[in-house]
Specification:
123 residues; alpha+beta; 3-stranded antiparallel β-sheet; two-stranded antiparallel ribbon; 5 helices; antimicrobial; Phage_lysozyme-like; Secreted protein; Lysozyme_dom_sf; Lysozyme-like_dom_sf
């Protein structure tokens, strides 16, 4: 069941990417908006996700982030906009409270889905 739900989350994220103006990386730390071609934004989100994962690593269970917040996966901030996080985790077949406490850990596909949402949000 969790795999079907994360698929829906990824599909929704992809739709949001294709319906908004694309972002391309002009340098690893600078992003610029463009109004042509949806593929460049998808590639940029993938690049952003790669950078985030390199910096944060991947953790299946919740942990205390060095930034002073509770996180899971690749720095997915569980303390920021809790209603939205609760909804995103529910869509991935997860219980926010159990994940936050460390009682429920994520599968690899769930970590990737949340990472892509964060990468799209930061683009």
């Amino acid at each position: 069941m969790a795999r079907v739900n994360i698929g829906l989350v990824l599909l929704a994220a992809l739709a949001a990417v294709l319906l908004s103006p694309p972002v391309i990386a002009t340098h690893t730390h600078h992003l610029r908006r463009r109004t042509t071609g949806g593929c460049s934004k998808i590639m940029s989100i993938g690049h952003t996700a790669d950078l985030m994962q390199q910096h944060e690593g991947r953790r299946a269970c919740a942990y205390n982030h060095k930034g002073g917040f509770r996180a899971v996966g690749s720095g997915y901030n569980l303390d920021q906009d809790r209603d939205q996080r609760r909804s995103e985790l529910r869509a991935a077949g997860l219980d926010y409270d159990r994940v936050y406490k460390g009682d429920q850990c994520l599968e690899d596909l769930q970590i990737s889905g949340l990472l892509m949402l964060d990468a799209e949000r930061s683009s």
